[in-house]
Amino acid sequence: MKVEDAKKIKLGEYPTPLQEMPHLAAAHGNKIKMWIKRDDATGPAFGGNKTRKLEYVMYDAIEKGCTAMLTYGGPQTNHGRTTVAAAIHCGMKPILILGGKKPEYLSGNLTLDAMMGTDIIFTDDYAKASKEVIARYEAQGDKVYDLPVGGSTMVGAAGYIMAVKEIMDQCEAMDIHPKYLVATVGSLGTFGGLNAGVHYFKAPFKVIGVPVSPGEKKERAVEFVNQLSDYYELGFKITEEDICIMEGPEDAPYAGEAYNKPDPLTRAAMFELAREEGIISDPTYTGKTMRGFLDMVDKGIIDGDAIFLHTGGAMAVWTKEHLDDMQGELFANCTISEI
Ligand SMILES: Cc1ncc(COP(=O)(O)O)c(C=O)c1O
């Protein structure tokens, strides 16, 4: 099936804005022009990159006659929150299986998951929980769509293959000529889809990925992109040379110490984006990518105009652990007084 013909439902608003960031570019010596692609503004339930994937996934779930939508993630999964909203929109029961122990206090995405009436199950054993939960729902007559972490399936990744075409059309309409598109590398649906889209549509820009966990290997991306090419008959095969993932300095990788580990360098980049452009990123994904983006501009690695893909996730700012970590820096970043 051609990717252009892949069927989807409408969940988000497109094209998402492509905005210039003149103040941030000036703060970095006006070496390049910077744009930001606002996929944080897709909707529903605050949206983010998962919406593009979910449009295809939800179509598939409806076609298969599913009545419940199950997905997985960490306690603060953005993917989970957006999937819940999409499921509700399509009249399906939302179920989340999340890693770890049941919390005492709900913050960030969990607040929204609870508000949307989600069936939330915490576990240390995803496979066991998944089997039990699916059996429980099936026993009451439901058909469960079992969506893997991040929604990064062949079906979902069509969203970011097609996003490349949207960006190319916007660049043409705006008469801009970015050399790079900088994006986060997580479960790969986004980065993999973008790479496949760039090859398929022969985009004039190169994708640079910044990983959310240190030690990201290129093989995973190569395999995923080639699988996409086979699945949608895109007609190319890539090798590791075609993939660009930037880890950053060895002693201070862009991904920080570990996935979701609060990191002062990430926060500095988040604060800078917020101060210069009034745009909110997050400590787990886009803040790390923004740090990498600015560092690569400063070092001349990014040596031409660039688009930063904002994939959403700002809800993580309001998680208890990140709020606790940020208090000192927040007070230092502004003036707060009383009269
Ligand atoms: C805000 C945000 N950005 C980026 C990503 C990474 O996207 P992907 O999992 O498609 O690689 C995620 C994944 O959860 C996310 O929530």
Helix content range: 40-55%
Pairing-aware structural class of the strands and helices?
Answer: alpha/beta
C-alpha end-to-end distance? 65 Å
If strands are numbered along the chain, what order do they take across the biggest sheet?
Answer: 1-2-9-7-8
Cα radius of gyration in angstroms: 20 Å
Structural overview:
This protein is an alpha/beta fold. It folds into 2 domains: 3-48 and 155-333, 3-Layer(aba) Sandwich (Rossmann fold); 50-151, Rossmann fold (3-Layer(aba) Sandwich). The chain is built from 11 helices and 9 strands. The strands form 2 sheets. Strands 1-2-9-7-8 form a 5-stranded mixed beta sheet. Helix 7 links the parallel strand 7 and strand 8 (206-211). The radius of gyration is 20 Å and the shape is globular. Pyridoxal-5'-phosphate (PLP) binds at residues 48-49, 78-79, 150, 152, 184-191, 282, 285-286, 311-313.
Produce a short descriptive summary.
With 339 residues, this protein is of the alpha/beta class.
Compile the SSE list and pairings.
Elements: E1 18-20, H1 22-27, E2 34-38, H2 50-63, E3 68-73, H3 78-89, E4 93-99, H4 109-115, E5 119-123, H5 126-139, E6 144-147, H6 154-174, E7 180-185, H7 189-200, E8 206-211, H8 218-231, H9 264-277, H10 286-298, E9 306-310, H11 320-333
The protein binds pyridoxal-5'-phosphate.
Pyridoxal-5'-phosphate (PLP) binds next to helix 3, strand 7 and helix 7.
Characteristics:
339 residues, alpha/beta, Rossmann fold, 2 domains, five-stranded mixed sheet, four-stranded parallel sheet, 11 helices, globular, binds pyridoxal-5'-phosphate
